[in-house]
Amino acid sequence: MVVSTLEATPVREAEFFSAELTARKLHLGAIVLNKVLPEYLCDPRTDKLAQSMKARAEELAEGLTDDPVVAGRVVGEVAESFLNFGVVARREAEQQAELKGAPDVLVTVPFFDADIYDMAGLLQLGAQVWE
Which of 114, 109, 48, 59 is nearest to 82 (CA)? Predict the structure, then answer.
């Protein structure tokens, strides 16, 4: 089993290690990809919504606070951040597709809010991975 994140260096190392296992005729049973961004970030509908939010940030911020200019900046930044995460998520999806042929099983672990350090965290991980 190979465990990696989808960041550039770790994924190259995982690809190298997987190739070495195969070259040495050792069975690669699974690749586990850790801290993978959610699929909804790749959805064109959410991308379109974030673009609309960014374009209409000040209008959407009206009535949120006493200072719609500041609130508009916040709404715009949230939308821009979402769009940036979408770029990363699409790249991760491409990397996942490149890795799919090598192992028997390719598992993705979502990006959890907190580190896994106890049995409850392991159970949550298991529920996410083996749904």
Answer: 48
CA 80 from centre of chain = 16
CA distance 84 to 102: 29
- Percentage of residues of the chain with pLDDT beyond 90: 37
Segment 10-19 shows an average pLDDT of: 88
Residue 11: other Cβ atoms inside 10 A? 19
On whether the CB atoms of residues 39 and 115 are closer than 8 A, the answer is: no
Strand partners, 110: 36
Whether the Cβ atoms of residue 102 and residue 91 lie closer than 8 Å to each other:
no
Nearest to 40 by CA among 78, 92, 4: 92
Which two tokens mark 31? Answer: 């690749």
CA distance 34 to 28: 17
Q: What is the pTM of this model?
A: 0.76
120 with 126: CB under 8 angstroms?
Answer: no
Please compute Rg for the chain using Cα positions. 19
